[in-house]
Amino acid sequence: MTLTAKSITKNYKTRRRQVSVIYDGDITAKSGELTVISGRSGSGKTTLLSILGGLTKPSGGSVFYDENDIYSMSDDKLSRYRNAEIGFVPQGQGALSALTVFENLILPASLSGSKAKDRAEKLLERLGLSQLRDAYPRELSGGELRRLSVARALINSPSVIFADEPTNDLDDENSELVLQLLKEQAQGGAAVVIVSHEQAALKYADVTYRMDSGRLQREEK
Question: Are residues 6 and 26 in contact, defined by beta-carbon separation less than 8 angstroms?
Fold first, then answer.
């Protein structure tokens, strides 16, 4: 899988003016590689990740997964494609309050049967959440909710993984745990793209980009 975004722009119109969030950005992410996009808060990193993940349509430019232009797909086809091929770790936590940790985790894989349950158990163990499998989100700390969101993104073994500040709310030990797990997904063949302002993420990167005021630039390692 190769993700290629070309000439991406994103503009928002207000009553009085047009605001440019991303200026003509190009990025490529490949299977087997972990890509880190760094930059200050408000530089456009989260908007870019949302565009790459098929969640926000760009004002200009194209996003290809191999030969598939995702924004030429119908909404239904793109939704199915995202569920099958893309794992997304958002900045916030998206756990459903009425479901347990385990139920939240297997929800994206509800059509996958017993194999999904086996993978869920392994992810919970790896991320130190096994003892909380029957707890509800309100009983979890911010760091535990963050690790649950990482597990949810990986449950379907996606070919592309996007992680927006995946180490927020985590201590150093759990930050290393999450980053190492994401690195392993890349080594296993996934294309992994992480947005992070933390220096710790850079040591896991195969490719790095920096975003400043909406302008994306590839950096030399």
Answer: yes
pLDDT tens digits along 195-207:
998 889 999 999 9
- Write out the chain in H/E/C secondary structure: CEEEEEEEEEEEECCCCEEEEEEEEEEEEECCCEEEEECCCCCCHHHHHHHHCCCCCCCEEEEEECCEEHHHCCHHHHHHHHHHHEEEECCCCCCCCCCCHHHHHHHHHCCCCHHHHHHHHHHHHHCCCHHHCCCCHHHCCHHHHHHHHHHHHHCCCCCEEEEECCCCCCCHHHHHHHHHHHHHHHHCCCEEEEECCCHHHHHHCCEEEEEECCEEEEECC
Confidence check: pLDDT of 111 > 70:
no
215 within 8 A of 37, measured Cβ to Cβ:
no
Distance of CA 26 to the CA centre of its chain: 18
Cβ neighbours around 112 below 10 Å, total: 16
Q: Give the amino acid at 158.
A: P
User: Could you tell me which of 77, 12, 32 has the C-alpha nearest to residue 182?
Assistant: 32
The identity of residue 10, as a single letter, is: K
User: pTM of the entire structure?
Assistant: 0.93
Q: How confident is the model at residue 2 (pLDDT cuts 50, 70, 90)?
A: very high
Q: Return the pLDDT at 221.
A: 65
Q: Class of 2-14+27-219 per CATH? A: alpha beta
